[in-house]
Amino acid sequence: MDVGACMFTPGRPACKVLDLIARGFNNYNQGTELPKAVAQLLLSNPTPQPGVRTMDLGQGTWQVFYAPHIASISSTFGVTFDTIQYVLDGDKLSSNVRYSHPLLGTGWLSASGGLAAKDDDTVELHFDKFWIDGGADGLRPTLTEGTSQPSDSMITAVGKAGFLPQFAVFPVAYLDEDLAVFEFPPLKSKIAVRRLPSPTVTDVTTSTI
Fold it and tell me: How many helices (H) and strands (E) does the chain have?
């Protein structure tokens, strides 16, 4: 959606969500408005076959702004995931998550692999590389031969062992040019993301959910 079009149709569900994001609502500042706005958004998906269309409309960089199960994990374990970004380039997907913890400090949990449409309404991901970077500014957005470190192979082995394919299938509940909402069936939760201007992967350390 052209965000400027919201000036003329502010009552549209997508416009309401974009307005709330612009006003500072996010996964750790949901209020009562953001859950209601996302619920309304899910009633107005404009894209047929959103699983298939994710592979073209979803190209670029996306950032999580609403994921109740992640907010719950943060509350339980005292860790904040203040930036969660996904970059889709063709059928290659990378994920970069910045965490903050009083004892563990700040760093990044990252993974990369592939994404494919499983059926008309569902996508499936497969991560085959995993790595961890320390410090708020230490992110390696992708893992390549030139950026690899000795510990990466061990972290990848642990990540692969813990990767459960049955948890990597996501129904697409909403999709347009600026917003998408995926379902996380194991926890019956939603993951809502917004498109970021590209390229942004080098600027993720200054971004927040």
Answer: 5, 8
**Rounded CA separation 19/25 (Å):** 9
CA gap 172, 150 in Å, rounded = 37
Q: Record the pTM.
A: 0.89
Contact between residue 63 and residue 194 where contact means Cβ atoms under 8 Å apart: yes
Residue given tokens 């970021």 in the structure block: 196
Give residue-wise pLDDT tens across range 107-159.
Answer: 999 999 999 999 999 999 999 999 999 999 999 999 887 788 999 999 999 99
* Three-state secondary-structure class, residue 97: strand
The tokens for 130 are 């995993």
Is the omega angle on the peptide bond into residue 186 within 30 degrees of 0, that is, cis? no
- Centre a 10 Å sphere on the Cβ of residue 116 and count the other Cβ atoms it contains: 15
Bridge partner list, 88: 60, 93
Q: In whole angstroms, what is the distance from residue 97 CA to residue 133 CA?
A: 10
Residue 22's SS3 state is helix
Spatial separation of the C-alpha atoms in residues 147 and 14, rounded to whole Å: 38
Pairing relationship of beta strands 92-101 and 80-89 according to DSSP bridges: antiparallel
